[in-house]
Design goal:
With 235 residues, this protein is of the alpha/beta class. It has a single domain (29-48, 78-228), classed as 3-Layer(aba) Sandwich (Rossmann fold). It has helices spanning 42-50, 72-78, 95-102, 109-115, 132-144, 162-177, 189-195, 213-217, 220-228; strands spanning 3-13, 16-27, 31-35, 57-62, 65-66, 80-83, 150-154, 181-185, 198-203, 206-212. The strands form 2 sheets. Strands 6-7-8-3-9-10 form a 6-stranded mixed beta sheet, sandwiched between helices. Strands 2-1-4-5 form a 4-stranded antiparallel beta sheet, with helices on one face. Helix 3 (95-102) runs parallel beside helix 5 (132-144), helix 4 packs across helix 5 (132-144) and helix 5 (132-144) runs parallel beside helix 6 (162-177). The longest helix has 16 residues, at 162-177. Bound molecules: adenosine-5'-triphosphate (ATP). InterPro entries: AAA+_ATPase, ABC_transporter-like_ATP-bd, ABC_transporter-like_CS, BCAA_Transport_ATP-bd_LivF, P-loop_NTPase. Keywords: Amino-acid transport, ATP-binding, Nucleotide-binding, Transport. It comes from Rhizobium setariae.
């Protein structure tokens, strides 16, 4: 059982606080959905958690270990995986080579192909030749075979057809059902809330909602208000 606890995290960009005291708890078997309008600080929050950028203050605790001062590589080895925006495949390498780069000694490529069977047929194709959806599958599968405890996925759906997005959502749910703690940053709020457990809505770097996904999915007007900031209703 894994627990990632983020407490009072403050992350600056060019000296300006962009993430301002966020609290998040991600647990094995659960998807924590991070929502918020453009510029709310979602990507910066994930970068602060994975250590790509230094945080100014707060705590990043993974199973009781304080990672706040650890570098990104150390956090990754401790079990924090960050699937960044932009489907960063190694385009000259084949699908399988992309997966092998990250393969943990205890993991197998079959785990990747079990999550995305469609990648098996594409194993010898250069990743740069794959469709956007397939490239997104490669980067998620590559994270999986690194055997992380927590997987943080940023904007996996952007620019993809709805049928592909649904396919990816199903796979992400399976990751959590298999025991991973998942943090999902997503623009398609309705789809993300449908597969998620706990939701956080960020506005200007602060949490304005922390609660169940179902509750928020049932109240689209409230979700709209939370995004637009017409009413403050931090819980
Ligand atoms: N490299 C940077 N230097 C300075 N400011 C930045 C930088 N990157 C992002 N910002 C600013 O930080 C704020 C939060 O950006 P961030 O990308 O974290 O938001 P987001 O919620 O992920 O939005 P989006 O959905 O647009 O990616 C924005 O105001 C943005 O302009």
């Amino acid at each position: 059982m894994t627990t990632l606890s983020i407490n009072g995290l403050i992350v600056n960009r060019s000296g300006i606080p962009v993430v301002r005291g966020v609290e998040i708890e991600a647990k094995s078997g659960e998807i924590s959905v991070l929502l918020g309008s453009n510029g709310a600080g979602k990507t910066t929050l994930l970068e602060g958690i994975s250590g790509i950028i230094a945080s100014a203050a707060g705590e990043v605790m993974l199973d009781g270990h304080d990672l706040m001062r650890a570098r990104a590589g150390v956090r990754a080895r401790a079990g924090l995986s960050h699937v960044e925006q932009g489907r960063t495949v190694f385009s000259q390498m084949t699908t399988e080579e992309n997966l092998k780069v990250a393969l943990h000694p205890d993991a197998t490529l079959d785990e990747a192909y079990a999550l995305f069977p469609e990648l098996r047929q594409r194993r010898d194709i250069a990743a740069g030749m794959l469709s956007g959806g397939e490239q997104q599958m490669v980067v998620i599968a590559r994270a999986l075979v690194g055997r992380p405890k927590v997987i943080m996925i940023d904007e996996m759906s952007s620019g993809l057809a709805p049928v592909v997005v649904s396919r990816l959502m199903t796979a992400v749910r399976k990751l959590a059902d298999d025991g991973m703690a998942v943090i999902l940053v997503e623009q398609f709020a309705t789809l993300a809330l449908a597969i998620g457990n706990r939701a956080y809505v960020l506005r200007r770097g602060q949490t304005v909602y922390d609660g169940g996904c179902e509750e928020l999915a049932r109240d689209p007007a409230r979700l709209h208000r939370l995004y637009l900031g017409e009413a403050s209703e931090a819980t």
